[in-house]
Amino acid sequence: MLEEKKPMETIETEIPMGTVHPAALEPYRVRFFVEDEIVKEAEITVGVNHRGIERIMEGLPVEKANALTEKICGICSNAHVWNSVRTAEMGLEISIPERASYIRIIMGELERLHSHFLYLAHGCEVLGHETFSMRVFYLREAIMDLLHMIGGNRVQYGCSIIGGVRPRCDLDQSKIEKLLNSLKSVEEGLSGFADRFTSDSILMSRIEGIGLIPQKQALKLEVTGPTLRATGVAKDLRTTMPEYENFDFNIITQEGGDVKSNLLMRVLEAFESIKIIRQAVDELPSGAVIDRSWKMVDCEPIHSYIEVPRGTLYHSYALEDGRIRGSIIRTPSMTNIGAMQYACIGDHITDAQLSIVQCDPCFTCTDRAVEIIRR
Amino acid sequence: MGIKSFSRQRAIHVMLVYTGGCNGCDIEIVNSVLSPKFDAEQYKVFLTWNPREADILVVTGPVTTFNKEPLKKIYEAIPEPKLVVAAGACALMGGVYKNIHGDIPSEEIEGPVENIIPVDAKVPGCSVRPQDVLAGVVASLPELLKKE
């Protein structure tokens, strides 16, 4: 069915883009090698945004370092803190109160919603449909208000700390009521959007078959997250995470791996996230949200993997005298660079930006120091 | 008020340059102009990605080494009169990335923005709130209209 796209031998015309370019919001450099306006090869270079977070983390007290990981990314900030705190908790063998775990999941899923809405809005803007973009931005504001209500800030909310969540992030009855009301209106708005979106034949013909990533290639490139699930592989770390054990949700997959299946993927995943938040609120256990009775000990490097809006996030560090040693962070967008490069190949040059955007890039996450080990 | 200022105040073009922060301020600023809730376009403030059209340059992020030269070039490409608004803690003082442990400066960061280009208005916050960005842009407008 799907043919493997192979680059040509000699390509003469090169279109460079970046590091700052009107079409790309974030600074990164991409070189398109084109032949008759068809992209034959693409090369993404990162490193423009590198700030050396792992270096700054080295030797910091673990509490400070956890707060610092939040500044890796402004879109999935909660995911970074969650995973960093989770790493410390695994190393120090702390079991957190159940209520704290539920609140972390609520925050995580709200963040998934706002990230997916941002993706949809940005995707619609790039493909040139500003009305849909505005519509999703409006839905997203409701989620941002909820994050502001629970976390106290619109972007960096620092919800998780070692032993549970911050007491200010606790949910009382009035907050729960507002949360459920907002979710209801968001769900209605989203299903309205989904109906309108899928019945738009012009839009569908515009995005169908653009930016193809075959399943075989996606597995070969170690693509993670929704981009992988859009090619038909049902792989989601939430199924194996002990935090999500009590929750009932479906793993959404789409066939195709093009822009259409990626966009629909995010819409359907948003409904699942709303479902998870409803379950968490319904079964929210009572009790304390933080357990401060833990002791600092030294530990070997700990590896923690969680599922974040963009895929699998990995944090690892060792603890020595309460300080961080040898921190390693691998973000999902980092592993998806291969997919971004591959998705451009074979499409028109005007669709190249759309092909990159369909892999949900976040170049602040992506700019990590990498060592490629060839085997 | 000359005819130039009179017409300019009816179409303020803001250009956003993102120099390596965490993406938080960046999205909030795009949000404050584009999203239907804050919608700066109703006050005739438009977002542009072309420096030759822009009147106000909004800079976010602590300016990484790679972004220093592009930022200067963009600043020079904007026609006079122009204003620079630095938004977010990173653009104002380098943020959490500026120093490694105490006062040891990080070699990746060239910021704050003031070191590279002159700044006219500062918007604090981590990340900035859309309301604050709008307030910052609006507060700097008289300065822009004074310059002919």
Features:
heterodimer, A: 375 residues, alpha+beta, Cytochrome-c3 Hydrogenase, chain B, 3-stranded antiparallel β-sheet, 45% helix, globular, B: 148 residues, Rossmann fold, two-stranded antiparallel ribbon, 5 helices
Summarize the structure in short.
Chain A is an alpha+beta fold and about 375 residues long. Helix content of chain A is about 45%, strand content about 15%.
Report the CATH C-level class of chain A: Mainly Alpha
Q: What is the beta-strand fraction of chain B?
A: 15-25%
Our count of helices of chain A gives: 14
Mean pLDDT of chain A: 88
Number of β-strand runs of chain A: 8
Characterization of the model:
The complex is a heterodimer of chains A (375) and B (148). With 375 residues, chain A is of the alpha+beta class. Chain A has helices at residues 53-57, 62-69, 77-92, 98-126, 130-151, 173-198, 201-207, 215-220, 226-229, 259-282, 332-335, 337-344, 352-357, 363-366; strands at residues 13-17, 29-35, 38-45, 160-161, 164-165, 299-308, 311-320, 323-330. Chain B is α/β, with parallel strands linked by helices and 148 residues long. Chain B contains 5 helices and 7 strands. Chain B has helices at 3-8, 24-34, 68-77, 89-93, 130-146; strands spanning 12-18, 45-48, 56-60, 83-87, 99-100, 104-105, 121-123. A 5-stranded parallel beta sheet of chain B has the order 2-1-3-4-7. The radius of gyration of chain B is 15 Å and the shape is globular. The N and C termini of chain B lie close together (9 Å). At the A-B interface, helix 1 and helix 5 of A face helix 2 and helix 3 of B.
